[in-house]
Queue: 2 jobs
Job 1
Amino acid sequence: MSHPRPRPGHADDLMELRAAAFELLARGVADRRSPVHTPTLASIGLDGTPRARTLVLRGFDAAARTLRLHSDQRGEKFAELARDPRFALHAYDPAAQVQLRLQGVASLHTDDAVAEAAWQASQPFSRICYSIEPAPGTPIAAPMPAPQDEVVGRQHFGVILLRMHSLEWLWLAAEGHRRARLDWPDGEERATWLVP
Ligand SMILES: Cc1cc2nc3c(=O)[nH]c(=O)nc-3n(C[C@H](O)[C@H](O)[C@H](O)COP(=O)(O)O)c2cc1C
């Protein structure tokens, strides 16, 4: 006989929902098997068209409402976010049946303490990617060997820090879906249910 799962607190309580959403983001950093570990980052292309790609979620600071991603400074997303820092981030956790949609503004860090701390904390096998030549996205005649030299990668390494201005939550449940939005105008938190 199957037992129904206990009703989670986030079904009816916006503050429990907030805690659950932040917990999914924190687990996305800590647990490589979490689908939130590899969210989709959307930015506005240099030609104004939408762009989306997978990145690894490296850090989440709940108090600052920031998420940390690592990328090659020479990549298109870096140029896109430098021109227009507005982003959207999407993740869906099938086990939790929750979709997260974040929006906000990105800052780019290449030569400051944020970038240096992230580089120092990176594994050698992660660092090596940043020494690739020529730049990521350059057309080549044939697939090329993987780069070997981690030291020269530092000059290409960058941190994308996403500061969220809003978080939208959608929970799929047989008893009735739940949709809610948190946002932080003027630093104050607002939370509201939305029609799913
Ligand atoms: C599972 C997975 C994880 C990835 N993680 C990163 C990452 O952490 N940083 C990154 O720059 N690209 C990552 N990529 C590659 C990006 O999706 C993308 O192809 C690349 O960064 C070029 O994007 P751009 O041309 O928009 O700059 C990852 C791809 C996959 C499939």
Job 2
Amino acid sequence: MSSLGESAAPTPAGIYDYMLGGRHHTAADREAAEQALAAAPEARAGILANRAFLQRAVRYTAERGVRQYIDLGSGYPTAGPVHEVAAEKVTDPRVVYVDYDPAVVALSRQVITAPAVTAAVYDIRDPERIIASPEVAGLIDWSEPVAVVMVALLHFISDEEDPARIVAAFRDRMAPGSFLIASHVCFGENPEGAQQGAGSWNRATSRVTIRTREEIGSFFIGLALASPGLVPVQQWRADGAAPQGEAMILGGVARWGRDGLVR
Ligand SMILES: C[S@@+](CC[C@H](N)C(=O)[O-])C[C@H]1O[C@@H](n2cnc3c(N)ncnc32)[C@H](O)[C@@H]1O
């Protein structure tokens, strides 16, 4: 049963929420998600692993003193959102959630009551507008470390829309001690399934561009990737024994500074 109205086109947020086992999806979202899962059944495990990666990565940056977060393409508020995970490690984290889907932002505003946390509708294809927005200007001090979160987001940006330009707009504002947390769909072990699965997402409001490891790695240029580097999300600093093998989603966390691997 959906908690939303039934819109004609599936949305990335609704498909993702359905796969995560949430409640915020329409019939169109469910149909597109089931088609994607039929082509690539491993997608559901990949998405659960992606969400767990986001939480471990936020904990990692909060343990290194980051108190400010911009979560871009944040999706429906679901278990373990950024502000709650960061608050395990730092007092009163400041968090701006951004999504281009007004339904996502409306629900986020409804359920989030923490101080110094806000949600706003912006499209990351206009990063300067986000940086200049009253929400970011009101909560984020760019002279202090900030973590910019782009988890399961940049594959919704086509090559023509230039995802590297979007990353650079945020990276160029960062103070020392800042981080980029990002994950992205790649071809993995089942390239045909990944491509077919992406075809189902492509009926949604944004198409999916699957990229190679090299292309995804290039988004971290100018930053220092934290160990273990750009890896399948389920392997990134996994608690306990990390499942091996290639995943459909690669993730990494990089610190402001020169290229190279930091421990
Ligand atoms: C797959 S969900 C990921 C949610 C969350 N980041 C996570 O990993 O758990 C992608 C989200 O990005 C949002 N999104 C896609 N393209 C966007 C854009 N151009 N600007 C802002 N948000 C976008 C979608 O609405 C959706 O909520």
